[in-house]
Amino acid sequence: MKHKPLTLLLVDDHEIVRTGLRTLLSTESGLRVLAEAGTGSQAVSQALRFMPDIVLLDVKLPDASGIKTCRDLLSACPTTHVIFLSSYWDEEAVLAAIQAGAHGFAAKEIQTEDLLRAIRSVAEGHAFFDPSIADMTLSLIRRHSNQIAKQADMPTLSPQERSIVCLVAEGKTNKEISVLLGLSDKTVKNYLANVYGKLHITRRSQAAVYYYRHLAPSKSVTRS
Length: 224
Description:
The chain is an alpha/beta fold.
């Protein structure tokens, strides 16, 4: 049975970058580039028109920040997944991207094989963190860990919810979590719904950030 190809929208203000990505991705089996955009407003318009599975999005755009564009994209097309692909990264930008609901983060220097893996991984429901970006993000989280620990309104998760959030942070799918914990898929979904409600989040990548901020041992880091 032939699988439906993953569809992509390329968003970057440099035409040469979009052309390079299109050339690279169009030759890969199972992927289909539907459209390109050079601005944030064009990105939202094209996403609404084509409803792509994945958007590769630059952080810097001429008319709006990539962060705002990510929020607008996911608000307009909630089933779409966003992977930030940029030559510019700092710790605050990564955290802002996560808070905006992004599903993946990679440097433009990423190897072709790794980019393809990121696209397929995110499409399957995983969060993808470029190792160098994960290092920056966790460094920032650790520097603020004492301040975070003092927050009085931190929600309380049950032991089972904590276990599920840990597995989500490791990139496990609901099906994999159900097997590991001996639960049904429906039960895992219900637990995740409760976690999302308690944490006021909507994305698996946001749950992963919560784990690294509040639950992960300082010496243990899991990367995609």
